[in-house]
Structure prediction request, 289 residues.
Amino acid sequence: MRSMTENELTDVVVERYRATPDARLQEILLSLIRHAHAFVRDVRLTETEWMKGVEFLTATGHMCDDKRQEMILLSDNLGISALVNMVSAGVPEGATETTVLGPFYVPNSPQRAWGESILLRDSDEIPLIVHGRVVDEDGTPLPGAGIEVWQTDSNGMYDIQDSSQPEDNLRGHYTANEEGRFLIRSIRPTSYPIPTDGPVGVLLRATNRHPFRPAHLHAIVTAPGHQPLTTHLFDAEDKYLDSDVVFAVKESLIRKFTKNEDPGAAERFGLSGPFWELDNDFVLSKARS
Ligand SMILES: [Fe+2]
Prediction:
């Protein structure tokens, strides 16, 4: 048996996987093998470098537990999560754009009442009111739609990163009323660094990249018969909008948080002083058949 060339090896490996019964899995695997082999040939990867990569991925896996998702963080930092979102979102014109889920989502956060605050600690910060409607592409309100939100506290940390915060601080589910309206009370989000105490931090330092994400409120919006929407609302005044460490900013998701000092408006929202206000409609697209 004669020895193979580099390209012949790739062909042999691809052929060995061609019997994969699931057609989509076969397509993904064959392409993955071709691209991974091309990468190895392209950079002339050494065995030492490959072992370093294996050790890096192993450390990334070891960093994961039920609260820390270093793998998602790695995917986010390589722009893969943003690219997957781009190629798979398929949001029609007029519907709210989607973006990445991020590593700090926690399912089953508590239900919040109309206008109830998701900030579960005492605070003298100016409150934030986020209000608007959930509608379909025709502007028809979607009563009963679910609006799940989460964000960091003013120290730039999510509750699951920071044991000093109450459990489920700054996260919760709201339900749209019969007009499709919702009313969320919170505080204005801040920009924050992603965790840098693990392998992703090593990667950032080795590549001279800053770890910051621009301030944002995460949301998952759902309604029967409609495509679930996973998105962010970004603060238009944030200095990291152009250099989000996870590449997730989309122009259409940037919002102006306005300061409302009208006492009458404050009273309508059950507040006693000035507040930040964000008036935002979520537009859902029809479920794909
Ligand atoms: Fe976030």
Summary: Residues 102, 104, 213, 216, 218 surround fe (ii) ion (CB under 6 Å). The chain has a mean pLDDT of 95. The chain is about 25% helix and 20% strand.
